[in-house]
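In practice, a research group might receive sequence data for several interacting partners and want a quick structural hypothesis before committing to experiments. The following worked case mirrors that situation: the sequences arrive first, and a predicted assembly follows.
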Amino acid sequence: MNTYIIGEQAKYYEFGKPISSNAIVEMKVPAVFPLEEIVKIERRSEIQFSLKEDTRVYGLGENLGGINKRGGRYESYCRDEANHTEDKINLYGAHNFFVIEDKEKAIGYFVDFPGRIHFDIGFTNDDEFIITINGENFGLMKIEGSTPSEIITKFLKTIGKPYIPPKWGFGYFQSRWGYRDQKEIQEVVDTFQQHEIPMDGIYLDLDYMVDFKNFTVSRERFPDFEDWTKSLKEKGLYLIPIIDAGVKIEEGYNVYEEGVKGDHFAVNQEGEPYVAAVWPGKVHFPDFFQEKTRRWFGEYYRDLTKMGIEGFWNDMNEPAIFYDEKSLEEAVDMAIDCRGKNLNVHKFFHLKDTFSNLLNDEKYHQRFYHRMDGEKKTNEEVHNLYGNYMTQSAYEGLSRHLDHRFLLISRASSIGMHRYGGIWTGDNASWWSHLEENVKMMPLLNMAGFFYTGADTGGFGGQCSGELLTRWLQFSIFTPLLRNHSALDTRAQEPYAFDKRTLEETKHLIRLRYRLIPYLYSTYMKAVDKYEMMFKPLAFFYKESHYKEIEDQLLLGDELMIAPVVERGKTGRRVDLPEEMAKIEFADSGYTVEIVKEGPHYLAYQRDRLIIFLKKGHMLPLGDVAMNVKELKNEKLDLLVYMDENAEHLLYTDDGLSIDRNDQVKTIFSVIHREGDFLVDIKNPYKGLKVVNFSFLTNEGLVKKTHRINS
Amino acid sequence: MNTYIIGEQAKYYEFGKPISSNAIVEMKVPAVFPLEEIVKIERRSEIQFSLKEDTRVYGLGENLGGINKRGGRYESYCRDEANHTEDKINLYGAHNFFVIEDKEKAIGYFVDFPGRIHFDIGFTNDDEFIITINGENFGLMKIEGSTPSEIITKFLKTIGKPYIPPKWGFGYFQSRWGYRDQKEIQEVVDTFQQHEIPMDGIYLDLDYMVDFKNFTVSRERFPDFEDWTKSLKEKGLYLIPIIDAGVKIEEGYNVYEEGVKGDHFAVNQEGEPYVAAVWPGKVHFPDFFQEKTRRWFGEYYRDLTKMGIEGFWNDMNEPAIFYDEKSLEEAVDMAIDCRGKNLNVHKFFHLKDTFSNLLNDEKYHQRFYHRMDGEKKTNEEVHNLYGNYMTQSAYEGLSRHLDHRFLLISRASSIGMHRYGGIWTGDNASWWSHLEENVKMMPLLNMAGFFYTGADTGGFGGQCSGELLTRWLQFSIFTPLLRNHSALDTRAQEPYAFDKRTLEETKHLIRLRYRLIPYLYSTYMKAVDKYEMMFKPLAFFYKESHYKEIEDQLLLGDELMIAPVVERGKTGRRVDLPEEMAKIEFADSGYTVEIVKEGPHYLAYQRDRLIIFLKKGHMLPLGDVAMNVKELKNEKLDLLVYMDENAEHLLYTDDGLSIDRNDQVKTIFSVIHREGDFLVDIKNPYKGLKVVNFSFLTNEGLVKKTHRINS
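A structural hypothesis for the assembly, expressed as tokens:
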């Protein structure tokens, strides 16, 4: 075992010869220190921790089961999991970072390993946390600190700054698997405009391609794609096409032919390109583990950027596999064998399950190989890096094709990929429990470096109701990635697809989202620059077990607490205030404020409202409503201030596009409450800011004051 | 349309010629009154209600989605649904009764129809409740009253008294699909005794039969079944075998041969016995719609009662169907057709889904027929009566074979069946959300007449943890049916199968269950006799929307509120007290009491405790711990009294076995608090009661007093 210090903050234990998981960017400096954890290595490796009565375990990023993972089992092994029931132990991301905290101390750990890792966190035995690593070669990073937040900041430094989207990436996006053609999408855009619902664009699902071939656009269904893309962009609207991991096997298709010629595809045991089936039927998978392949694949994105595209979503890159030739053949053989037989329960379920299990059978991962620095590795060994490297390929390609920021998200991910793109949380459903999981997952994703993220608002699979869409938006208007997306053959899910009530509610909320963009964008950039989380559990800041256990309320930035309604049929919810806060309730007609005491409450939260809680001594800036980010001017800013003796707010702004962010302005708003008056100071007002409307809330009431910027 | 009054309480509208759903027992008396609801009839029928902002809809029995069904969609169509995700609109029961309540009034409705009914309760449009009935002939019963409770009592009268189990049915039962033989089961019994965990018996899943043939016992695996059954019974332990709806097709098998000979099986279009496959492979389904078949099938239960059996569970009686010959053949043909093809996404999912959808395809229900009063009906038309009539058949048979009460539960049910047996809530999973659904479903099952009911504690499918088993028991020790049951190939789920901590906790809880039996049994009998619910939503008793919306706390009887922890990893929970109550916290060493004020709280609820809330002016009787119900003597009773000016409690006891309950004793405990003293009076002490230990709780503290009965 070799030991290192990383960036003067973290200890790193190297067992065997780890394959880099592409996560850590800070230097490893050899140093000598002992191993305190119990680690057993024997083909598989095992790390053991004992858990005290009050130990909590936070982390593991994109996983179900809430903020404190104690009591559950999880796996880091990227999976195309379409059915997010609570027994699922892995989803699309492999985020091997967690913090263990008890009354005495907190320690962070990162398991640096690209294959399968299993975490049994007091599930099998209540007081044992066992990590099983599917191999002998791995790194273990250990970070100590006085609080989870401090540890997480140290960790975020070791893995490097998250991807930064363009500012228009903070707009609202509509999406649907099943928008057939340009005409139908244009109608969606027009209907949004007709109802004065802002949007920044449309995600294009697979429907835009020719026979599911990457980097093609169906001319039949999108007759003037370039002109259309450009005319939309002039109005501030972006199209974001999907790219899949699998490349269709088809003679004459350039990506396929060049891939074969350049040896760019993952191979089977015989060294031939491996054949699996996804959307188009049979495909090859680009071997993104080869640098030349990353460069090669990244170049194809230019086919679409040339047409005006500035954003992409990389999908199916766990990679998802519907079947391979061998397994399909075996299943058909079994079906033939069952013909005319009298199948009892065991035989029948075996037949049925054989067909069900074709989908994403993990056996396939042992049947194809990647080339990494001249070595052949099965996909299983380096599985969690596939989507990571695909997105790196896209990021590096797009950085060559465009001279400004672009939008890029991926479904599969592992830590390290956060530097190249965001993630959406995959194929959730129109379930209330998935709204609740969305809330609880946000801080965990931040812990893993994923800041540009969000769930499919309203749910991807299944049937949404107007009530669910409204309630989901009451949360997701705070998430950096805000997309309403739904699957083929589900109920239409656009804000106007439900009853009149839902249209009014969702319109109100999406318009509020645009007013929140100055705040959200600033909070994002501050979090990136300071290596801090944007969404934070109450547990990280309040010591009483009462508040440590509240997971359906989150802190956002330094200013806000949000407590969305995540249950059907309610007109209010239980809210626990860990300190006195100002409750701000937005209605269509304006807002009301009320100071709410520390402790448990049941508070009304009607569907046509938006409620936030502002901490004492803090401010919330609200900008303009505009029909998209391009039109946002924010010459006038409303500042809601919950006064302590004084209050301060730091607002980051920039042009929203430049990669270096050299034009960043840090505006400082400060207020002192003295002798009944509010003394205001504004340092470094951003360009264009003309008027600031202050609303000072104190225990005595609300005072309004307008401040004009002298230019 | 004909109109009737039922039992002077309910209005009944008869559309066309309804097929009786076997639910209503009170007389229908012709009467003339107008129809106020909007009803449209056109092959299907539609009933429309408009929903106000504050309208709540309670009911529909065994369904997911909580107590207030507003905002969701449901179906009454019994289904073998193994995956209880929140989008599922029907489970095993069809319970067509609900109450609509708004600030002004409450009305109850029962849709008297044995086929498919769909309920869209503000899902599609927020303000519309649409009931779609799959036919033109049905009855609609309407019950008015000032409160939901009053309406429910009137409804329960119209459908007749619920099934009454023997007192030993209130014990704890262990079960598992996969207990291989007598030896393994005896080991389970012995291990319970060794750990001093009480139990009243074991449910036998399919493993006990010969080739899944009903009414057979494998002599290979159960070599001396009769002697064993009897020796267990002497110790107070019961074996409860499963009976399935499907009868194996096998030459020489008496049930099959006699069934064919007597024309007892449901037939296909050609009039031949319909062939479907379930556990044993190919089966016929008894046509329970024929009175002669009910009598015929019910006689076979004698084969087992002769061996000492006194309880049964009727399973798979929706009926579940794995495949039929036609559909399996078609699926195999499709697989052959796919051989060697390049299947894209649509073709692949079509293939995969064809095999998945073999299981319980509703098409099968159109392919077989029942004979009802000389008329042939497709199963689809009368689907929801199948399990109902099967259980009636068993009940009537067992009433002939035994001269005292017996235990009988069923998986499929519709209202009316509650007179013949209880239900368990089917194949749930070891999910925390299923514990929460268990809580919320209990009062709705009571509304539908099902009192002897409970969920599989710990969850049937999936992997349970010790924590989940403990938390589940903290709720289910209050449910009349208390069974820990789990599926083949899941983690062992007996109380001792986890860590030491779980063993201690679960043992403590199961022992407490036995101390609660006097109270639970009495509460059950009072509920039956008074036509009142045993488990009640807060919403029925408190007017503020705050308490109307709390669904994870229940009232039990007139005395208690229970608020179980239904989330993982918690040491407490939010509890909302609709009035001041006494919190009683049981630890292994005894109990502590504390008065908790009205309003929202966050209360500690450790895993090794049991917490209940006692209403003011009420008492909770606690009996002895015993190793089973047979051994319960209760010569000494502890009475916890939360004093108002006075307090009273009515305790029903009987011998626990007699059908007429003629020996029932109604003991009245009353206390008056006067001048610092507690004046106690006990009327009609039950036989054997010698000592009552009173604990009087007031705002001033706890006073203990022992009262001896003069015999």
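Before designing any experiment, note the following. The CA atoms of residues 43 and 136 of chain B lie 6 Å apart. The first strand of chain B starts at residue 2 and ends at 6.
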